[in-house]
Design goal:
Number of strands: 7
Number of domains: 1
Strand order of the largest sheet: 1-2-3-6-7
CATH architecture: Alpha-Beta Complex
Largest sheet: 5 strands, antiparallel
Helix content: 25-40%
CATH class: Alpha Beta
Bound molecules: ligand K1U, zinc ion
Radius of gyration: 15 Å
């Protein structure tokens, strides 16, 4: 397993649309292992492959609380089959947009289909933080960042702040 570098805005690779995965094989599992290690190290609760520069439709996640055992999850070629009309707000963050947090409104519940670490197709309902995180990560697969859901002013301010942090580092 290896730690990978997380891309930071305004890296243009973050705007790429990721490609469908053909099959879950050992090479893909090695990528998912690296992603999980990188996510835990950051630390974060989710990571899309494009955030480490790999344009594949792959997501890792662990939304277990800090006093709970680790609960890694893997999503290959995730699809949203259904989204609730009811929405819910959540103060989101992103490892590619360090130190910026803002409220995003998304469907409160979604029904998903994806392939897991073993390559099995799974259908599952998501709500709460799971629903927020999977929608945030699936946006990454389309080249969409949570700041794209904010006003142009807030988005530009966020990118400016991140650029300033990078210069100061
Ligand atoms: O960059 C990412 O996509 C990961 C992102 C996921 C996310 C967080 C909040 C709402 C939606 C999606 C993060 O993990 S940001 C860091 C974070 O939320 C966190 C870090 C340490 C402990 C708990 C949370
Ligand atoms: Zn993100």
């Amino acid at each position: 397993m290896a730690l990978r570098e997380i891309l930071i805005v305004p890296d243009p690779r973050l705007k790429q649309v990721s490609q469908t995965v053909d099959k879950v094989d050992d090479a893909l599992r090695a990528l998912m292992d690296d992603m999980l290690e990188t996510m835990y190290d950051a630390p974060g609760i989710g990571l899309a492959a494009i955030q480490i520069g790999v344009p594949k439709r792959v997501i890792v996640m662990d939304i277990a609380g800090k006093d709970e055992p680790k609960a890694p999850r893997y999503f290959v070629n995730p699809e949203i089959l259904w989204a609730s009309e009811e929405t819910a707000p959540y103060e989101e963050g992103c490892l590619s947009i360090p130190e910026i947090y803002d409220e995003v409104e998304r469907p409160a519940r979604v029904k998903l289909r994806y392939m897991n670490y073993q390559g099995e197709t799974v259908e599952e309902d998501a709500e709460g933080l799971f629903a927020v995180c999977i929608q945030h990560e699936m946006d990454h697969l389309q080249g969409v960042l949570f700041i794209d859901h904010l006003s142009r002013l807030k988005r530009e301010q966020a990118v400016k702040k991140v650029k300033k942090q990078a210069k100061a580092a």
